[in-house]
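User: Fold this, then the next.

Assistant: Folding the first:
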Amino acid sequence: MISHEELTSLTAQNATAPAGNRRRIRVLLLLLLMAGALYSWGHKPVPMLPSAPLVTKQVLLPAGSNQFRTEEEWMASDIVNAIAEMIAFAATGKTPAEAGVAVRSSKGARAQEYIFEASVGEHSAPARTQLVLTNYFWAPENFVTLAKGLASKWSPNVVRPRSPVDREIFLRLTTPSPDALVREDLRISEALTKSPLDAEMHEEAALLIGSFALRHAADTFYDVRRELSRMTAHLAIARASGEESGPCADLAEAILCSLAGRQTGALEIMQRLERHADASAGLPLVAQTIWNRAITLRNTGDYRKLDQPEHATLLERLEYVNALRYRIDSAAASAFLVRHPAENLAEWSNVILAGNFSVSEGHLWAGRALRAELEEIAAAYRNYHGHTLAEGDWTRALNTPAEQILREENQPARMAVLGWGSWAALHQRQFCQTIQTTWTWLEEAYGVPEQAAEFKKKITAKFSGLQLFPLLNMEPDSATGSKRAFELRAQTLIEAHPSWVPFHFWSDTPRRSQMVQNRGAHAPPLFTRLNWFSPVLPMGTTYDAPLRDSSTLCALSGTEIDQVKAIAPYSDAVLYQQLQKAKSSRPTPDEVASQFEVLRGYDTWAMLIVADAYKGDPERYEQAYTQLCYFKPDNFLNLGDYLLEHRRPDAAAKAYQKAVDHAPDRVAVSNNVRWLIDYYYERGRRKDAFAVAEMAAEAYSSRGLSTMAALLEKDGQLTQAETYLKKIEERYNQNDELITFYGRHRENKPFAEAFDQMTTKLFPRGQELADVATLSGIPRDGVVLTGMNERTQRAGLKNGDVIVTINGIRVRNQQQYRYLLQSAPSPTVQFGFWSPQNYRSVVINVPERRLGVSISDLR
């Protein structure tokens, strides 16, 4: 189990951002690495698995799913199609197209009632089945009757042997590397081709698909609905045989429940398997122990359950790192992998880079994420096709559909449990996520827009034909026209292929479009099919709940939220909403603590909720929040801010110092330690002040360099202070603090000359006095607000407002804006703004001479 010491003491490689020139070199190397990968990795030799070469014919994906009104209708039909295709193959030995498989579906009058008509060939009478789904949407028993009916009608004379349980499969799948999963796929697919109604092989197929689905780690592109439906289809056919299910079926359904967000159901199945460990109805004891820990980690997120994780199986370590990432943060997951280097798998980077992560983590993982994903694509393609993926075939290959019945040229039809199509879908999603993450990191987090633009250019040139490419948003915040074009592309894809698109993009795109419309600008029409996710959560599940609309849980009744909690008792979002319902949004601090007791020992979000409940009690808040800080040392900065606000400077200094000592996000620390440096210096602790300032400067952030310069200036070392301010100008193309520094020290002749020269260049028209009351028309230049925070919202400002004056002086660009703020005689600053309605002025207190929001030049 990972200790507090391990969590709070990260390696220098992970914790410290590179300095100056090394930073720029690293970005250039990263871009060269990416460019080289895009044009050469397709030709790298990849060891083939010992299997016959398989060549999949390229088939264009049909529109298909846009005929359905809701997600559940599409998924129900997808399950029935999968069952019908496999049973038709058992009867005819043909592909669905050759056999003439047709499935028509309609929604019944009752909730969860569906009517299906399935036929084989033009002249066969359709088999009609009326189903009412119970328990949960993907429950295999929902479709057993249909599978029995089709089998008896289409393949009554087909032999249905049941192979003996392959008890080694449970241990083999505890190392779910791509090569291992492909080997299992080839073996099981061959067996099902020979005996298409073998119940044991269908159970193994479901287990394999579940193991494959556990590898998905694409964040906003995450989507395993197809895999869940295929698992359901295989398990339904197996149960239709009438024989008692084997341990493969039980373990497969435990994974199915885990992926569907049915935590209680998954854990109950594992308890049942544990009772039968080493018996014919259970798993071998060693395999049972490993799978039990992995499934427990997946459902509870309690990483403490795994002792000595560095020595565990790949299956357990994948779940362990996943739990660290989502129950603590990216730094904890990254720290573990830095200390204990793991296999070269794309999942490690994908998990760490999901959601928020630090700049230093981006340096460590962004490059290897792209490299690992491309290498896995090339390897998987070679394993299935027997040859290297050609230079111009990457997009075509990744657009290959996932089909379960295939026919190669001059070969008989065969079954494919996964096949290249499943891997293509997985890798396209994860590759698109990696592209999005890398661009966002370069453009926004690291702040190198030129490199971000070059990255976008190379990626677009090679991969714009990917089916999911329209969902990529590689546009700066200021690129309004490009953002509208992105929204239109995304909405067009959603309209044509709703089943391809995860919930995140449905909920996000219309919201952005509405924001554009609210500004009075031209925008694409709002997407009109938002009822596709109706209900938002598939019946009896909490599938994909973290990315689905939070208002879903808010809209549930008290009884309904209690039922959801019974399904997912370790979901922090469910626990939170249940508490709000029960206490009418006014729970006491002790009630909050009691509600989250099950998670408080390891889930940092739960720790934060409990701590915030005590915010009115500084002593109890500090105690509760400190527990969180030991898991997420970056939060010592927030604790320091809180203690300062509550006039506890000595306690605040201790909190800030702990951030200096332990927090992994060195850029964030460097940006927030000026008060601590002043605190030390003013108390005669000069050595401590310089130690912290040197750390801040080493991070090479703009504020870190500025902090060091401020201390040197205070210490009378003006030449050295000038050096650090010049580093800001060189690295970030910002000289406002340098000019202000020269202005403060104009008694120094060289400084005075530099000040006059720089201000003349900065204000070629001189510092123009301007009164917003006399301004009219739309400004031609100024500084646009492209982000908001509490300070600007309190002042009544909005995104898109344009700063045109500061303290009565005209502002035409960001450089002038920064200088006028830095040189303002008082932190109380009068801003002149233009909004689409009029010009106005507002007074805002900016003690650090920063509004703290993103801005851009008005063009």
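Now the next one, as you asked:
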Amino acid sequence: MRRPRFLVAIVTVLLLIVGSLPVAGAPDDWNLNSSGLVKVNIMMDGRTMDFSGYIVNNRTVAPLRAIFEALSVDVKWNPDTYTITATKGNKVIVLTVGKAGATIDGTPYEIAVPPVLIDSRTFVPVRFIIDALGLDVKWDANTYTVIINSGSECTLAPFQRHEGTIAVGGETWGKCGSPHIVSGTFYVEGTDSPILTIEPGAVLRFEANSGIEVGGSAPGGLVVNGKDGDPVYFTADTSGPQAGFWDGIHFFNQTLINDSRIANAVIEYAGEAEGGAITIEGYEKMVEVQLNNVEIKHSQYAGLNMKYQGRLRAGSAGLTISDTEVAAENGGFPIITGIYGSHNLPWGTFEGNAVNAVAIDDSGYSTVATNTTWKNVSIPYAINDDVYVEGKAAPTLTIAPGVITLWAPSAALFVGDGAPGHLVADAGALVDGAGEGERPEGGGEWKSEFDPDTWTKDPAKASELASVAALEPGCALCGVNQSIIFGAWTAAPERGAWEGIRLMSNAGDKTKLNGVVIAYGGLNEDNSAGLYVDSQGGKTVKFQLSNSLIMGAAQSGMEFYGNVQMRPESTGNLFAGNGWPIRLEADSIGYIPAGQAFENNDRQAISVWFTTSDTVTRTATWRNHGVPYSFANSVYIGGTASPVVTIEPGTELRFQQNATLEVGYNGAGTLVAVGQAGKPITFTSEIKRAGAWEGLHFTGETGDSNKLENVVIENANIALNLDVDLGGFIRNATIRNSAEMGIYRGYGSEGTTFLSGFGIQFEGNAVDENEE
């Protein structure tokens, strides 16, 4: 089974809860041994705690971790500076081992006894902490007891233990009883559909390899009701927490969707190989969970992992995931999801993860079978396998402005392969809920109409976003990018680093690519391109490509086969740094609108060849795009529809060895090639020598409206071969360097005249003209 292995960029984070490890090198004055110290009892809210304090320099100190847990205070430890940061609600207290100074919400305070290490555990002065938190403390000299009144009306003692299966009727865990200790796997399920409710301020500590499983073998729900300023904490029950210490929260098939949500919570040090801090797994049916204002940190493998039909519920927002680590060289992403879970992910804050991207991985290939939107979540999407957009419902994959997608070497995006499907990647579309001039997700002042920016006009600039370089530092460019990027999942991409976008026979007509960058797609082989379009079985594929950049394709930037048509609004595109910029069959030449640009391609020409047909059967205009057409094979104009091919002034047509352009083949056909003074239409060869191609051939079914005016025909075997009477159809032409002859008039062409007044110039031909 394949797993995400895009990049092993491990970020090791040692952010330990206070008292986690002995502090090597601490000052001797504050690194004490408990032997010889006077022990002190601690009573809180009428209950004697199972931990003790000591008297140091006539002041009572208590074990920081234990007393703060009992008071539902969040603690952070900096081992480099011996600094303690304690947070309760909006109050932040900072102390340092061995220093008599402290701060409360940034205001400095003096304390009589600084924090000390006793038996390598951190102890803090009780009086300062209690006063800082606004609690009541008394001293019983007879029993050497510190009596703390937190003001709580709790009837439950702290350190409530939970293991096994939830009680019938459900359970509620609150601030009273915190910290709650979870041992082993706690199952939330039952025939009565129980719900585990966790109240604001509750603290849950998990023993090693423990976790919560919801809706596994029977219905169950989890409702976490944290509040702003009074969140719920899920953390490790250890003095030395590390990523993956506990298994996380796992939602299964029988999760009660309407009764499963997490709000205002912090989840840390969870996860496991192929899992995550939160795992939503819909193997047999859809499973949704709503997350609001959830912070996930120090996870192993993934912060959020959504498998099969698991996904976030609409309305999820405020997601923060940081410092996710790899597991057995896999994962390390803040989010790993299948295609189903990739829909409508919320904008989030993602920092310090081993791989700062959303991994889309269904272990083989993924099918978008329902309408799906990839939103700009502030970091790129990393796609490991082929993605197919198709299904009975003719689904649409919509990619929002600013989204960056990076594709593994074996991956491609298929649209409409075995069934109908659509792709809409429109950088000019308004983000849902963003009005004129409002800042959308992803940054930038957005307009209702797309204004091409530097990403689609500057290949060097676009390359910064089209590889894993987009991740660093912290994906700074993701917030200002407005284009939609299709790039390669590699640090130093070469041409053809991934397989590209493929619009197939069932691609729907509303397929639209506007303001996109397609970079490094298209392998160095036939039937492969940055954008490959293939219509079979008599079907027609129509699509829009506009204001876009296709760059770095090995074989060709864009490639067509079959009945493929670019819509007229497909303008403003740049093809740069590819093998061929465009490769297509002759019958599709007329569907390349004006307004294309070509820069620094290996072969600055539009390649015309065929796999399905070498015949032009539709009336078309072959436009002058500023680069030649290169014909690999003979091309025939003719058919039951009597097609007329019109060639714009200034166009150059180059032909390979033995190729010919034949008019009137297998049905009537007409060629109208009318150049202008200074802008002739040139029919020539790829190899600049006499006889390098076969020339123009007009047969018996040629239409009566053919024109050749202001043209150059050169380097052919026979420049103009006539089997039909066309009268004076050629004027102001130069015919030169023909190997056999300039003009050959066969039987039936007797009426065709080449009078001197018609402006025919013969130069360097073996024979200027001959007739049968």
